Amino acid sequence: MEPLRQRAAKTETHRAHDGPSAGNRGSDGKQGLRPLRRGEPSLRISAVKRVLRHLGRIAILTSLLVYAGVLVRKDWPPDARLSPHGSSQGAWWVSPSLTRAERIMLVVAHPDDECLFFSPTLLNLLAPRFVTRPDSTAPIKLESPRGHILSLSSGNAEGLGIKRTREMKASCEAFGIPSTACIVLDHPDLPDSMSVWWPEATIAECVKRYVELWDIDAIITFDHHGVSGHANHRAIAATLSQLAHADPQFPITFMLRSTWILEKYASLLSLPYSLYRHRRHQGGAKRAAMRSMAASSSEDEAGSGSAIFVSTPAQYYAGRRAFSQHVSQNVWFRWLWLASSRFMWINELTTAAVPL
Questions:
Q1: Which of 23, 118, 179, 323 has a CA 20 to 30 Å removed from the CA of 263?
Q2: For the chain, what is the domain count?
Q3: The whole model's pTM is what?
Q4: Does position 27 have pLDDT exceeding 70, yes or no?
């Protein structure tokens, strides 16, 4: 009997020691999960918020440092007087075929498109520059006005077509483009509508008319996504890409690269990735041209199918001043766009894509 009593006493002792943890065991004898203490979920959320804040600060600081580097190192607009190889100056940033073009036409769908989407392009391309043409050794100064704008509708969806036409003329003047080089059409087949796909034959007819009238060297317009997905924007892109590929006499056509929604509203935070994407595109274009033995006189020409324009702070505010001429469009979501959109700071252009 004595050994049985000793064994029972030892068992009770073990139970006493294991008591606090035994309550957390299930019926199968396995160790259960410790219940969360009061306040632990909020502590974890606070930790996540701190990490996100730190990442946000790093992203902002990195973007500002990259932007400062761009402003310091950018060799565009080019000045061929400063270098014996001036023709290649700025070629990393802008396609030489666009840099040397004397008469450039921007084709948009509505008044205010030129401000909301193309400000960096207009403000950089309208800057005077000295270039060396392949058939000449003397630098040639390309002076303003070189830009022309063709809006294929007056934005008359709300009956404000006449007012918006006057506003666009004033906006063109703010960009340094004379009113004679700023045309707003009001064609019955080209209504301002989110859902109407414009007839491509009508678009082609209107664009060709002003290409001949102004003797245009290069065209800039939307890409197949139209930045905002607007049907009118996309119809223009579809038509001009077809013309650019079907007609060898049609001016070289550049399209504004659309982006996904978070990048679209990231302002200058999107600059590091935009530069990386532009560099990758340049490298791919050079390799493709070299593989196909393209007729190119220089390495810079081999990768000349794209451009990236980055506005200075002064140019950004110049774009906002131009938009202020569109009084009828001064609504809260437009001002949100001006404050947050990358398209007020950065434009990436690529040559017209293969027609869809």
A1: 323
A2: 1
A3: 0.81
A4: no
